[in-house]
Amino acid sequence: MQPKAEYYLEKLGLTRHVEGGSFKEVYRSAELIPHTALPKGFAAARPFGTAIYFLLEDGQFSAFHRIASDETWHFYDGDTLSIYEIDAQGQLIKHQLGRNLETGDHFQLTIPAGSWFGSRCEVKDGFSLVGCTVAPGFDFADFELANKETLQKAYPQHAGIIGVMTY
Question: N or C of the chain: less Cβ packing under 10 Å?
Answer without folding.
Answer: N
